[in-house]
Protein: Small ribosomal subunit protein bS21
Organism: Tengunoibacter tsumagoiensis
Amino acid sequence: MSEVKINDNESFETALKRFNRKIQQDGVLAEARRREHYEKPSMKRKRKEAAKRRKTARRV
């Protein structure tokens, strides 16, 4: 669970920006989007294979 403590004399907006940045870095939103709908194991395998292919294509 991500947590941001507000410092003295810090505005809510800056604390919210720090929180959003931390959430983005932790990958919480991406994980939530990925889990939003059920993904069949065959589709999961295809997605991973496609990512692997893209990754190896970048190296060349």
The longest helix spans residues 41-59.
